[in-house]
Amino acid sequence: MFNIILFGPPGSGKGTQSEKLIAAYGLKHLSTGDLLRSEIAAQTPLGLEAKSIMDKGQLVPDEVVVGMISSALDQNPQAKGFLFDGFPRTEAQSIALDKLLKLKNTEIGVVLALDVSEEELVSRLLNRGKTSGRSDDTNESVIRARIAEYKAKTTVVANYYSTFDKVVHIKGEGSVDEIFESLHSEIDKRMS
Length: 192
Ligand code: ADP
What we know:
Layout: E1 3-7, H1 14-25, E2 28-31, H2 32-41, H3 45-54, H4 62-75, E3 82-85, H5 91-103, E4 108-115, H6 118-132, H7 140-162, E5 167-171, H8 176-191
Parallel strand pairs: 1-3, 1-4, 2-3, 4-5
This protein binds adenosine-5'-diphosphate.
Adenosine-5'-diphosphate binds next to helix 2 and helix 3.
């Protein structure tokens, strides 16, 4: 099993690159943002609770997302590996993920961090908001709040995995294919 964390701020291209990576490596894609949006669409109690938090650009409680990831891991016992997208977003989530993977006798192989400037992020997200139907992408103050949450709570995740020498920084600006090639070559180096 080879498990990857695709890491980076909102708008850094994690969703776009995830699709290409799961196709190339046959990994199971686990996006907590997508899982939460499915809960919202199904109007579950969890979805209703999450929506008001997400609409403010804040993070949903750790136990909620860790619970969702834990069941997703259990539901995919045959997976060749997992691609985590938008998770973990706090140090507590990182520690919880490492424990869950250890129970399955596996671990994170690499953390691929996409670096993109803040102005580029805001412009990409506002652009995405025109067509994505995501309410958190249409309002610049919500976008800035998400980037602030990322800086305050999520950058520590890269520090956490750096101590295990698992983080590789990738330039997240350029063409989709160029960025994919960089990710691809870093994964291949670590997989062999
Ligand atoms: P983006 O990274 O583009 O902001 P996501 O789809 O990953 O989009 O997440 C959208 C929102 O869902 C976040 O702003 C947050 O409120 C919530 N969310 C997603 N993943 C997590 C997580 N791991 N922990 C807490 N909240 C999360």
